[in-house]
Specification:
The structure is a homodimer. Helix content of chain A is 75%, strand content 0%. Chain A is an all-alpha fold. Chain A folds into two domains: 59 residues, Arc Repressor Mutant, subunit A; 109 residues, Tetracycline Repressor, domain 2, CATH 1.10.357. The longest helix of chain A is centred in the first third of the chain and has 30 residues. At the A-B interface, α6, α7, α8 and α9 of A face α6, α7, α8 and α9 of B.
């Protein structure tokens, strides 16, 4: 005989399976048809659920996509500390090259553009993004820089938020505006220029 | 008696007046109703022209908005050389503070977000943006940096494209993602951090 507890735990499992199916469908579809043509109907059909199931949990396609990214970042290898070999410049180049590779990956390009677009136009979603996705990632980046700063490898009075934005900002911007080639060499130049600064070093 | 030449010059004048009315209407409307609700019908009604007049010249509302920005940048004070007082740090702070003020101006905020969104999703428009709007502005910024570089105030081997992206990228990114406050002090910190670099200076 099934106890009420068991029923509700089965329901929770079914519910979690639907949730994952919906988020995976949203992520795959935005890549296949583009964000403009992404619809709640389309996501429901692909995930094999009713439209109402989606509307019960999410008010818009933008929030579905946001949770899809959140699910990806919750995966075991989604959020890890930055490499720390002791060579800050080499480690930063490794990480920025990985960012370049991700931005150039056709599987991520359209979903990431869609997410950025929604954030640009929706202050509430932007706040959720800063708090739940960008914030935790930024903290990992700052941890690596903080370690280097303590070891005397970075300027003592450096604002670590600004340091992170100086390393990743140009890259994200060039990708979003398609204003130049996004290559591993560009990632390296960003790291070298940010570390050394624009002024002459003697 | 009106000569054919006069007729066609009158027609050109009328046509130019319609063009300016359409572009001004698009710019004002996107600020008033938001980009999502901006429509060719709405622009036509506000500009006092027929819908077909707009479709004859522009394929989409994104291209209308792009030309509206182009018109703004063609105005006498739209594109000027960067200040050159001899003090590079002070001049860059002046210019970045002006950028902050523009991004915080409610009149520009929504139209600029819309333009960035369209660019992010439309490679053709992105190419036009790089060639006709961003490119010329970037050239003015590079001119100022080139002068400083020749005077020995900047590193000899500095990549000026990367330098410009390092100064303006973090700012645009913070604005677009709403990831932090956009203040004059932030503009100053960006300039100081970019000039000095993240490494300790001795």
């Amino acid at each position: 005989m099934t106890t009420p507890r068991k029923i509700s735990s089965n329901a929770a499992r079914r519910s979690e399976a639907s949730r994952r199916a919906i988020l995976t469908a949203a992520f795959d579809l935005v890549h296949e048809v583009g964000y403009a043509k992404l619809s709640i109907e389309g996501i429901a059909a692909r995930a094999g659920v009713g439209k109402q199931t989606i509307y019960r949990w999410w008010p818009s396609k933008g929030t579905v996509l946001f949770d899809a990214f959140l699910m990806l970042s919750d995966e075991p290898d989604g959020e890890a500390a930055l490499p720390d070999t002791g060579d800050l410049e080499a480690d930063l180049k490794t990480v920025l090259r990985a960012t370049v590779a991700e931005l150039n990956d056709p599987r991520y390009d359209e979903p990431l553009r869609a997410l950025n677009t929604e954030i640009a136009h929706d202050p509430e979603l932007a706040a959720a993004y800063v708090e739940r996705l960008d914030g935790p990632m930024k903290e990992l980046k700052k941890q690596r820089l903080r370690g280097a700063q303590r070891a005397g490898q970075l300027a003592k009075d450096l604002d670590l938020d600004v340091a992170v934005e100086m390393l990743w900002g140009p890259l994200l911007n060039r990708w979003l505006q398609r204003s130049g080639p996004l290559t591993p060499e560009y990632a390296d130049t960003i790291v070298e220029t940010a570390l050394n600064g624009l002024l002459p070093r003697r």
